[in-house]
Amino acid sequence: MIYEDKNNIYYFKKGNDYEVANIEIKYNRIKKRNVLVITGTDIIEQLEEVKEYTFKELEEKLVK
What we know:
Helix content: 10-25%
Radius of gyration: 12 Å
Number of helices: 1
Strand content: over 45%
């Protein structure tokens, strides 16, 4: 799952905390379309309210 806070920053869940996610949109020559590439940044934060996405939902939201 991928999480979004009220400031439109995306996170991975890491224990009880959240790790800031780096999200890039890259063109995949094999699939012949844009795809999401998500990596962690090792920046950990504690959050109260987050919106939850599956990878597929986030990809549909960001790659149109």
